[in-house]
Amino acid sequence: MKGLMQDWPLLVHTFIDHASIHHGDREIVTRKVEGDIHRTNYSEIHSRSRKFSKALIKLGVKKSDVIGTLAWNTHRHLESWYGITGVGAIYHTLNPRLFLEQLEYIINHAENKFIISDISFVKILEGLEEKIPNVKGIIFLTDKENMPETSLKNVFCYEEMVDAEDDNFSWIKVGEGDACGLCYTSGTTGNPKGVLYSHKSNVLHTLVANNADAMGIKSTDSVMPVVPMFHANAWGLSFTAPMSGCKIVMPGMNMDGESIYQLLTEEKVTFTAAVPTVWLMLLQYLEANNLQLPYLERVAIGGSAVPRVMLEKFERDYEVSVMHAWGMTEMSPLGTIGAFKHGMEGLSFEDKVNIKLKQGRASYMVEMKITDDENNEIPWNGKDFGNLKVRGPFISSQYMKGDGGEILDEDGFFDTGDVATIDEMGFMQITDRSKDVIKSGGEWISSIELENVAVGHPDIAEAAVIGVLHPKWDERPLLICVANEGKSPSTQDVLDFLDGKLAKWWMPDDVVFVDEIPHTATGKIQKLTLRDQFKDYVLPSLK
Ligand code: AMP
Description:
Elements (H helix, E strand, L loop, with lengths): L12 H10 L4 E5 L5 E5 H17 L7 E5 L4 H12 L3 E4 L6 H11 L1 E6 L4 H7 L8 E4 L14 E3 H6 L15 E6 L9 E5 H11 L12 E4 L6 H4 L1 H8 L2 E4 L6 H10 L4 E4 L1 H14 L8 E4 L6 H10 L3 E7 L6 E4 L11 H8 L3 E3 L4 E5 L14 E6 L22 E9 L4 E7 L4 E3 L2 E3 L1 H8 L5 E11 L3 E10 L7 H8 L11 E4 L13 H7 L10
Parallel strand pairs: 1-11, 3-4, 3-5, 4-8, 5-6, 6-7, 10-11, 10-12, 12-13, 13-14, 24-25
Antiparallel strand pairs: 1-2, 8-9, 14-15, 15-16, 16-20, 17-18, 18-19, 19-20, 21-22, 23-24
Bound molecules: adenosine monophosphate (AMP).
Adenosine monophosphate binds next to strand 14, strand 19 and strand 20.
């Protein structure tokens, strides 16, 4: 017998519909890329996103077209997402920190029809124009006055497009299983792969991410997503915020300690979220200027592990509750969050910190297990570690265009590539990464990519890159080389050679020479042994 409830499809534009009806005058504040502070509300965002939908239709955008967005967190970026999904198209976030070859690959692979961009990225687009022939035009998220001077052809002004329309528009009908968003992984092994979110997966993720033991955002909150929208949907905040009707504070392109502090204080932010590097800059600024955080109640931190000292400072010195979260692009992204369980309330400060240093427990709809290499489950005892695997309705079943082949095991679980323990209470802790990427400032640096460029040097026989600890950036790359026989290139020689071939922030912080790089039986570089070998190494900049 079938149930007799209404068939109400789970679609992302229902978030902004709801916000405009029930929280229409709630503020959305943006530090614009042009520099000034801008104030709008959910009613206006709703109206302007529908105008933008009409403008997109005039440009010929159709259902399932992929529209790139190369933009910081601003009200216009948010509107553009709802405008895109409103015509049944797919927003595709482009990470401006990638280097040109990666952006070129991603834009072409995803078949972007248009790119919506902040004016700050005009040079990137000029560099790409010849290489992305399928892109029919660039829409700059600005007004006529601030349109950039550019050699780009087919350039459009967002504000002019919006101004030319009225908002008499109904969202184009789509199904809840239809794609609405796209975000590429960092491509640590081979090319980046596309993670394609559906309307339904985003709605389910939003409901789960906002439960009381997770983000728990209320209409009375003032929320600042510092985590960029190009990082897995700003951890879902572009949907969670309108669903709850909270105030949103968009930081634009400035993420230094002072700019973040100003917005936290002036806009009375109660909840915020970002990677540890951002919080390190904020804490340094607060300490240097003897400042407090009178309004902030909760900070979600993820993307890489939260350092103990950061956790203790937030909780003890600033009375801000840290929510340590773990997830990945393939998981929409939230997988676990470290909310206490019954019985933990009375624990000492130290014990609470120890629990919060773990990555947390699985949300509803995230099934989690750890296995050995034969897929046998490993017990949840907080000691034994294994491959972390997950299953659920907002976790990828495959990558865009089938890249990477079958990604689920025989039970339908996705291997996260992380290695973890899970304790008796269900709290998971990442112990290692099975891949060897280097995390710098919340971004990934591919060691393989770097090695490939380094061995292009005529005097280098072999190269291996490992991450070494850095107090500000978490990790920085160290390049370890074996020179060709009879050759002895200097560190500076190698750095000069790499300069211009890599994104600036991918440049290794140091180059060292060894006689031999250790290998496994199958000829792979043994990174673990190398890390062990260099465990006491200190970067020259930190000496
Ligand atoms: P991304 O898809 O770029 O969000 O990266 C996902 C990966 O970041 C995960 O597979 C983990 O390796 C790492 N990660 C995310 N959150 C955490 C965390 N809280 N602690 C440690 N590693 C994390």
